[in-house]
Design goal:
The protein is an alpha/beta fold. It has helices spanning 11-25, 35-39, 43-53, 63-71, 89-94, 104-117, 141-153, 175-194, 206-211, 236-240, 353-359, 364-369, and strands spanning 5-10, 29-33, 57-60, 77-80, 98-101, 121-126, 157-163, 200-202, 219-222, 247-252, 255-259, 264-265, 271-272, 277-282, 299-303, 308-312, 322-325, 339-343, 377-380. The strands form 4 sheets. The chain has an 8-stranded parallel sheet. Strands 16-15-18-10-1-19 form a 6-stranded mixed sheet. A 3-stranded antiparallel sheet has the order 11-14-17, with no helix packed on it. Strand 4 (77-80), helix 5 and strand 5 form a beta-alpha-beta unit. Helix 1 packs across helix 3, helix 6 runs parallel beside helix 7 (141-153) and helix 7 (141-153) packs parallel to helix 8. The longest helix has 20 residues, at 175-194. The radius of gyration is 24 Å and the shape is elongated. The structure holds pyridoxal-5'-phosphate (PLP).
């Protein structure tokens, strides 16, 4: 079947990006964060590419993600960090997945799961050092540590990790980061004094790894940078470190047509042609992750016979499609079937995910991770 739209994923780029990040992080190890289908790039494929590049750990938010990796035969260490009461933790323990605990009830559930499958569960205790999301706040931390040490003494868990997460991962030089490092260091000291002998202490995301060496501890949890995108507002930062965007999102024109000046385009006629124009119909829409905020804002590159053209999306993005105004196109440069590059590395002059993030007033994380399930991933360079 001809490809109508596809996200081409350069697995070689992911491996090379991880290789570069491993160099920067050393001696700290790298955990490749592959949650949310590898930020849209594909869970298993991204994980294997990251391991090829030297990642010794994989990080996911949810248990199903960890279990999918194991079901696909992915080895190595995997940490899964977000669960609600009553999840099938025994399956995770059986599958040799490390689990996070932010509260004594979670330690109790992990211990019970370990007992069921007659194994020792590996646990990472999470401290809330300021983000006010997961993790135990300072007054709760001693109780969490005590609960974990009790379960460890009972032979059900092994406390292998102590961890936390940054508030300003996109701007690690923010003064809050130094306070978080101090709070994390104090939490680690308290746990160690109580008897915890953790294998890894981890705090940094991509931003921390790249900008705050003192946040690297034993392990860094790196997401966006392994996909070649910058964690910072400064999109050039990733390229200057030698990182290469791994995803190129393309579609093919489904139809072109000539319309007169003053023609209203798409739902609500939020765009009108200024001159007699050729319109191009692009068969990918908001159900595929192309946010409606892209209307009259985000650019795409249309690959023509005698040259490429960067054009802004014309009018409302619908569920399955949007329209671009290809101008007068007197020499019939553009026709149905031509490639439209929504974003990519930027090397051919196409927009990047960072350009899209700026146009949509969001972050590149959202641009790549929301590319929907109807868009096939086409893997290259693996
Ligand atoms: C707990 C945790 N650690 C690490 C990361 C990776 O962050 P980044 O993609 O900024 O490297 C994430 C991503 O959101 C996260 O939730």
């Amino acid at each position: 079947m001809p490809i109508r739209a596809a996200a081409r994923v350069d697995l070689g780029a992911i491996s090379a990006n991880v290789g570069r990040l491993v160099e920067i992080a050393g001696p700290a190890q790298v955990m490749a964060v592959v949650k949310a289908e590898g930020y849209g790039h594909g869970l298993v494929q991204s994980a294997l590419a990251a391991q090829n590049g030297g990642a010794t750990w994989l990080g996911v938010a949810f248990l199903e993600e960890a279990l999918s990796l194991r079901a696909a035969g992915v080895g190595g260490r995997i940490l899964s960090w977000l669960a609600v009461p009553g999840e099938p933790l025994a399956e995770a323990v059986r599958a040799d997945v490390d689990l996070s605990a932010s509260a004594p009830w979670m330690v109790a559930e992990i211990a019970a799961a370990a007992r069921t499958v007659d194994r020792v569960a590996r646990v990472h205790l999470k401290a809330d050092t300021g983000l006010s999301r997961g993790g135990a706040v300072e007054p709760e931390w001693p109780e969490l540590v005590a609960a974990a040490l009790k379960a460890q003494a009972d032979g059900q868990v092994n406390v292998v990790g102590l961890w936390s997460h940054f508030v300003h991962g996109d701007d690690p030089s923010h003064p809050t980061s130094a306070r978080q490092i101090a709070a994390f260091t104090a939490a680690v000291a308290l746990a160690e004094q109580a008897g915890v002998r953790a294998e890894v202490r981890h705090l940094a995301n991509s931003g921390g790894l790249l900008e705050l060496p003192q946040s690297r501890f034993d392990l860094v949890r790196v997401g966006i940078a392994i996909y070649g995108l910058s964690p910072f507002a400064d999109a050039a930062a990733a390229a200057s470190l030698g990182l290469r965007p791994a995803m190129t999102l393309t579609a093919r024109l489904a139809l072109t047509k000539r319309v007169p000046a003053g023609t209203g385009v798409s739902y609500g006629h939020r765009y009108q042609t200024q001159v007699a124009s050729k319109l191009g119909l692009v068969p990918i829409g908001y159900a595929d992750g192309i946010g409606r905020a892209a209307a009259n804002a985000a650019e795409v590159m249309v690959v023509g016979r005698s040259g490429n053209s960067r054009v802004t999306i014309s009018g409302t993005v619908s569920m399955d499609q949007f329209v671009v105004d290809l101008g007068a196109d007197e020499d019939d440069n553009f026709a149905a079937g031509d490639e439209v590059v929504l974003f990519g590395t930027g090397e051919r002059g196409e927009p990047t995910a960072d350009d899209w993030a700026r146009a949509l007033n969001t972050i590149s994380y959202e641009i790549v991770s929301r590319v929907g399930v109807r868009v096939p991933r086409v893997y290259e360079g693996g």
